[in-house]
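Dear support,

Our group has been running a series of protein-ligand predictions, and this particular one with glutamine is the one our PI (initials K.S.) wants archived with full inputs and outputs. We had some confusion internally about which version of the output was final, so please treat the block below as the authoritative record. The input we submitted was:
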Amino acid sequence: MNDSWCQAPIHQLRQAIERGTCDPRELLRQLLDRITRLNSSLSAYMAVEPERLTRQLEERVRNGPRGRLFGIPITVKDNLCVTDEETTCASRILAGFRPPYSATVIERLLAEGAIIIPRANMDEFAFGSSTETSHFGPTKNPRDPERVPGGSSGGSAAAVASDLALGALGTDTGGSIRQPASFCGVVGLKPTYGRVSRYGLIAFASSLDQIGPITKDVTDCALLLSVIAGHDPKDSTSAPVKADDYVGGLSPSLKGIRVGLPGLSDQGLDEGVRQRIDEALKTLWRLGAQPIDVELRHIDRSIATYYIIATAEASSNLARYDGIQYGYRAQAGASLLDMYQRTRGEGFGAEAKRRIILGTYVLSRGYYDAYYLKGLKVRTLIKQGFDEAFTRCDVIAMPTSPTAAFRLGEKMDNPLQMYLSDIYTISANLAGVPAVSVPCGFTSSDQPVGLQLLANTFEEAKLLQVAYAYEQSTEWHHRTPALST
Ligand code: GLN
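Confirmed final output from the archive:
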């Protein structure tokens, strides 16, 4: 079966479409054919409607803008609103919800000529690190279907890694773009808080959430970021900072770049991951980067701080799902209150309930000062630690995740173990700084490992340049998984 266009990075397809050697209709046909053959074994998408997508393409090829993504299908996570498309956050409580508007990132993709493929699987409301909390059922890791793809953007990452997507959007509140990118062997970037509009993203924790790209290589990541970044008057937290041309800034040189090494505790760090990170650092030094020891003060408090702030915000954001305005409603109860209770009891999964209870607790009178307010103070200290570190270095390097992809079910009965797997990703969200995960090799059991790079706020261009220089000197991004039909 010829589906070779699906394996190409977007920047190559773009040139092929411009030259007329790739017909967007054939590209979409190959992609839909591949999804039809392989999605049932991976569950990267919750549903795909081929006829609808083909109609969308026909219309856009005739009348759509010939922009930077003309004729290119882009996959989006199920928490990004797309007009009239069912958007559920992989939760029963949003079943049947069809938003009357699209997220700003969707509008920006469309304005460049992209075709939107919605409904990439995810953890319910993005609560999780494995895509196992999806009401729809878990996504499998394309390199080993016994393992998780990471989460919460596991559907997006698995789709890109298995060539069921050319590029995708995910969202990252505490690592949900970078960790699945790492587990699936692809590139994932969480932008600076405020860099990308959150308008039309169904909120998890509003002060931490960011939308970002998951792609086959760094150039595609830079391209998608260039399209989605920039100020949006519809999101009051979007920053009035001009987006750079991130693709134009890519260069293979690392001369003069200072890479901060935070000397984190390697408790829980898998030996195979440590080795690959050490080798990746040696590559950076060989390319001319300079190692600098830095201290990230209070970073050991990140997980506790995150799980207070994130659950507090989540409990408040999820209060709106009461069966009245959106999605699922339980069969009529004895009273209005009874209907609310039944709707929420039946509509939310176990992890969502856990977070609502935890978040409500830390916000309740009597505990607010002890937990939530203290969490906010520690968050400020963590941010100050980053500010200090970035006076001494350009980027910071560390693993994306302490382990490679774990087995399905391995951590589901132990939420604390699951939360601990976010140890290296969470601090970037608390501090609001951008961070990227790039493939840096494989463990002895052939699982991908991700190198994480972090930069100061709005320094995505620098971050992508370092990631690009590293990627260009390695072959990891060419090792795609072998899949059987
Ligand atoms: N794993 C983290 C959590 O469960 C992060 C999730 C995310 O980034 N959306 O909260």
